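hey can u run this one w/ D-malate bound, need the structure tokens asap thx
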Amino acid sequence: MGVTTMDPTTTTLPDDATAASDGGSAASEPAAEDVTFPENLVGIRTLEADQIRLVLDTAEHFRAISERPIKKVPALRGKTVVNLFFEPSTRTRTSFEIAGKRLSADVQSISASTSSVVKGETLLDTARNIEAMLPDILVIRHASAGAADFLAKHCSAAVVNAGDGAHEHPTQALLDALTIQRSKGTVAGLRVVIVGDIGHSRVARSNILCLRKLGAEVAVAAPPTLMPAEAEALGVTVHHRIEPALEGADVVMMLRIQVERGGKLNVPSTAEYFKLFGLTERRLGLARDDAIVMHPGPMNRGVEIASDVADGPRSVILEQVTNGLAVRMAILYLLAGGNPTNVESTA
Ligand code: MLT
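ok here u go:
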């Protein structure tokens, strides 16, 4: 479907370690209409830097549309988007629902607790039954890594990964890149530090891939129990204390401990974790004066981030949510074959 002529398998990088930055060179950037978009959005790993930039540019148009009194465009009129959420979600699910509706698509959301999964149906059977109703786009969140890729291989509808286990969360990384670009003018050359449960976080993984492809320098900080053994292979600088990681940072991204995926504290209490790794005003003083603070949510105030920092002038946490809607509109639009140079057009 859509404008895509690309076989997504041909865009796959050999491995994550080779996802080196291209420095965001404007000189070599093709025009938006010359960039093809894959048929599914399963992860950042399979996106090229130009495709990431295409999403960000398209999302900028949708941000502008979202600021109008009438926020709806007819681009996906007659298309059906089904959101299959097998894990709890507030932001992501609402964001995909509103994104689809603002594009005039018919949107249906199904959550695990109200689906036949509770009666023992497999993911494939659920998907096949939904497919029999001929949706155009399936958005899936699932606790198992690889669930979105599995659906993409078995379904003819375009598939969007809204988070698969500890693997990838591509729309989060794209909205984070848009937020950084809007705040700082660029992503290339910035020093971004990601602090928290790196080992169990799909947000960390997708962000590392995305930020490096856009030319940022990425550092991660976590206690050893929350740091993956292969972290350095992702091309990041690894720290086991927060302070040296924060020094000179342009962007500070804080992450929740993913207890539901086995993220365990190696300290006696959350208060102790906050003492060692929590982002306080004082610690933020180690970063650059104009550093921004990000968090994908849900936040645990007083565990990974102090309330005054979360609500402070350098926080762009709610901007991330606003940008998330624009990015998801862009993704649905591009997957449905929308023309990136005319977002008001019918797909
Ligand atoms: C996620 O879905 O991974 C969230 O956006 C981050 C979290 O759950 O902590």
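The pocket of D-malate is lined by residues 163, 169, 172, 202-203, 256, 296 (CB under 6 Å). anyway lmk if its weird
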